[in-house]
Amino acid sequence: MNSKYAIINGELLPEASAFIQVADLSIQRGYGVFEFFVTNQSVPVFLTDHLNRLYYSAGEMHLDMGYSKERLIELITKLTNANQIADSGIRITITGGYSEDGYSIGKPNLIITQNALTINKSMNKGIHLVTYNHLRQLPAIKTINYLQAIYLQPFIKKSQADDVLYYHDEILSECPRANLFIVTHNNDIITPSNNILKGITRSKILSFNNFNCIEADITRAEMYAAKEVFITSTTKNILPVLQIDGKIIGDGLPGKITAQLFAQLVSCKFNGSL
After folding, report:
1. Rg, C-alpha atoms of the chain
2. What is the architecture, at CATH level 2, of domain 5-116?
3. Looking at the whole model, is its pTM more than 0.90?
4. pLDDT above 80 for 123
């Protein structure tokens, strides 16, 4: 296999020699933001949405991007042309930069990497979640801080679950890397409105005008009583949730509305119908 390439501060480099210095705040303090999107047959999916969120995250974290969106697109194209990976995941990281005192923001470093990714266009059979009382710092910003999610991995495994779902004061928010939706017995589709990262896949589902999609607070009790539950993300698309905290959701099988949403999402995501 040919060597892969990455981009550091606008320069295309072999991945093996693409690096930043240890003084960067991303290493010293875990300070930075990122964005992740997929390519389908070498074409970035929902790229404009992802870049818009990246610039929002960087601005909220007081990081000067230093690159126009047009220049970033040029660099992404340069990377994909060099790597020739048709179906992939691309990550853009903006770091806190080299800090003179290990605490002050420096000039951000730009890192763009690409890895092969198998895109699943068939709906998963379903997963189990476990809830945990936690509210992320700066939840509306896509930071590189996943401390709590990684710390909880033994807890998730011990609970015989596939992922964790955060709540605070009995109000649900999100999974570490996915948004939550419930389907009520009236077929309303509800997703949490506060203390979340607003996912790109989430936004697409909210735009489907053939369903009644609502942003509102959801309690754990309302979720347990839901007809269907599913989570969404760039890589997961839509995953049915069959069990939460050991409680069966609905009839314990992927729901019909979840399946309909999945089919519509895949169509718009990979066939350009949105």
Report:
1. 19
2. 2-Layer Sandwich (3.30)
3. yes
4. yes
Separation CA 186–CA 204 (nearest Å): 21
How high is the pLDDT of residue 1? 45
Q: Which segments of the chain belong to CATH 3.30.470.10? A: 5-116
Q: Of 141, 140, 119, 126, nearest to 34 (Cα)?
A: 141
The correct CATH number of 127-270 out of 3.30.43.10, 3.30.70.2740, 3.20.10.10, 2.130.10.10 is: 3.20.10.10
Q: Residue 32 CB: number of other CB atoms within 10 A?
A: 24
What residue spans in the chain does CATH classification 3.20.10.10 cover?
Answer: 127-270
**CA atoms of 164 and 145, how far apart (whole Å):** 16
Are the C-beta atoms of 70 and 40 separated by less than 8 Å?
Answer: no
What's the confidence (pLDDT) of residue 274? 47
Please check whether residue 4 is in contact with residue 83, taking contact to mean a CB–CB distance below 8 angstroms. yes
Q: What secondary structure letter does DSSP report for 62?
A: T
142-197 confidence digits (pLDDT tens): 999 999 999 999 999 999 999 999 999 999 999 999 999 999 999 999 999 999 99
pLDDT at 208: 95
The angle at the Cα of 234, spanning 229 to 239, to the nearest 5 degrees, equals: 25
Amino acid at 26: S
Res 121: pLDDT: 85
Helix axes 47-60, 69-83, angle to 10 degrees: 120
- 3-class DSSP state of 199: coil
Considering only CA atoms, which of 222, 200, 227, 254 is closest in space to residue 37?
200
